[in-house]
From TrEMBL:
This is YafY family transcriptional regulator. Keywords: Transcription, Transcription regulation. InterPro entries: CBASS_pafABC_assoc_protein, DeoR_HTH, HTH_11, PafC-like, WCX_dom, WH-like_DNA-bd_sf, WH_DNA-bd_sf, WYL_dom. The keyword Transcription regulation applies. It comes from Bariatricus massiliensis. Residues 2-61 form the HTH deoR-type domain. Gene3D superfamilies: Winged helix-like DNA-binding domain superfamily/Winged helix DNA-binding domain.
Length: 298
């Protein structure tokens, strides 16, 4: 426990620059006396940490101090490498190089134990290139010039300050400040159809929590599927939402937003889904299916 706290203190000082014993005591939920003992222990181990009294005093590390790899436990080294593996698996050359260097530094083989790919089928190179551009712009605070398609299909040119990438509900989003609208906006990754990273740099800012993805209003949806659709049903619904009937048919009861996405999703099952509830969804699906028929009939 103490060794873990010592490392966290060093990390905290690297991040904050200068602090006080009471602040560290509050941060790590120990006494001020314990913090001073930890500072002594760090100093004795060769870490250039100093404590000065007086009005302008405080606890700080020597300028330009670089964290010694010896401070990391074997478990912490493996966790760092595993985190980098998840980024490298998404196709990042930069993260792959860092992974190789740290693996050599830690003297631990970087055996990949899982694979992550957030790109869409058939769009791996394009999606990953876009992801890398957005990630770089967020990290280096470069403004972006984008062409975006909103939910109504309207294209618009935007100049934005990218603040953070967010993965939520199977979708990537970009949290940003739109300089054209002079307000914070949330952009869906797949709807950014053109992207240019500019040389202009903006000052970092926090994205308000209230601007997060709004929770949609959900309704109880009950669906019936033939057993032939089991592969999709188990892929796309939680096991707790699925009831298997004696006939091997599947009843799915789920809370979902009653919107255009749901209609399109249910239509993707073709004639292999029957809506049990709500009744209003019957008419909506029938109407859309009829439109599809009229458009495509010969």
């Amino acid at each position: 426990m103490k060794e873990s706290r010592l490392f966290k203190i060093v990390y905290y000082l690297l991040d904050k620059g200068r602090t006080t014993a009471p602040e560290l005591a509050q941060e790590f939920e120990v006494s001020v006396r314990t913090i001073y003992r930890d500072i002594d222990a760090l100093s004795e181990s060769g870490i250039p940490v100093y404590a000065e009294t007086g009005r302008n005093g405080g606890i700080y590390l020597l300028d330009n101090y670089v964290l010694d790899k010896a401070l990391l436990s074997d478990k912490e080294k493996l966790e760092i490498l595993s985190s980098l593996q998840s980024l490298s698996a998404a196709g990042s050359l930069y993260d792959a190089e860092v992974l190789t260097k740290l693996s050599a530094l830690f003297k631990i083989p970087s055996e990949s134990w899982f694979e992550v790919d957030f790109s869409r089928w058939g769009s791996k190179a394009k999606d990953n290139a876009k992801f890398e551009s957005l990630k770089s712009a967020v990290i280096h605070h470069n403004t972006l010039a984008i062409v975006y398609v909103n939910a109504r299909g309207i294209k618009s040119k935007r100049n934005i300050n990218p603040l953070k990438l967010m993965y939520k509900s199977k979708e990537w989003y970009l949290k940003a400040y739109c300089t054209d609208k002079e307000d914070f906006r949330l952009f869906k990754f797949n709807r950014i159809i053109e992207l240019e990273v500019t040389d202009n740099v903006f000052l970092p800012m926090d994205y308000p929590d209230s601007q997060d993805v709004p929770a949609p209003s959900c309704h109880k949806i009950v669906l019936r599927f033939p057993k032939e659709m089991s592969y999709r049903v188990y892929d796309e619904f939680d096991a707790e939402e699925i009831q298997v009937l004696p006939s091997d048919e599947l009843i799915v009861t789920s809370e979902m937003p009653l919107d255009s996405w749901l209609v399109g999703y249910l239509l993707s099952f073709g004639a292999q889904v029957q809506v049990m509830e709500p009744a209003c969804l019957h008419e909506i699906l029938a109407e859309q299916a009829m439109k599809i028929y009229e458009i495509n009939r010969v």
